[in-house]
């Protein structure tokens, strides 16, 4: 077995990296489906009216089910490994999502086998090629908006998290984690809407603002609901690493350096 896999901080970091990338990629893949939050809760549509736009309800992309987990992991990595680690994982994730969408595009352009086109007619799918393209062929503006929003929201999350931590120290992880998520999710919501729908589909500014408020309200509520999960995760990580190791990692993270007293993960 490779020596670095015996090191608990390294093993934990590898787990976070793998889950972070996989979760983000899955969120992007399922993001093409819009679901009704009211139906999930058994409630009638909200039918809100904001800035002259009526009939607004909580119709959300399925990606929002998974994105809150990204920000929890971001804050945990930020707490124990520092902002450089968060940025490294974020850049890697963006590159891999971009690669995935490129492969989706290639797959859509490959000529389909004739027999395959109609193999799901009995399931109500008259043409598999059209269905495949509809699922994986998200618009360029939506892809661009999603990637840019992800990058900027991650950077904002890192910045706000450490600003709060300089005041709170190692205490009140719930405050810096939830606070940074509330700010970063606001940025995320509007960057996606501005790029994908204001620039890409010529929405009015009032429409962007109105829908952004509805989306952000959901994200803010979820961030608050998940606050206990962050506190539980912190306790489990400290128990796994040991208090002395966890304290060293936190001090190193506050210095905005990689963990210097812990055996690093070999990169070559």
How would you describe this protein?
Helix content is 69%, strand content 5%. With 268 residues, the chain is mainly alpha-helical. It has one domain. It has a two-stranded antiparallel sheet with strand order 1-4. A two-stranded antiparallel sheet has the order 2-3. A hairpin with a 2-residue loop joins strand 2 and strand 3. The C terminus is likely disordered.
Question: Topology, pairings included?
Answer:
Elements: H1 8-30, E1 34-36, H2 37-41, E2 48-50, E3 53-56, E4 59-61, H3 67-80, H4 83-109, H5 114-117, H6 128-136, H7 140-168, H8 173-199, H9 205-225, H10 227-241, H11 243-254
Antiparallel strand pairs: 1-4, 2-3
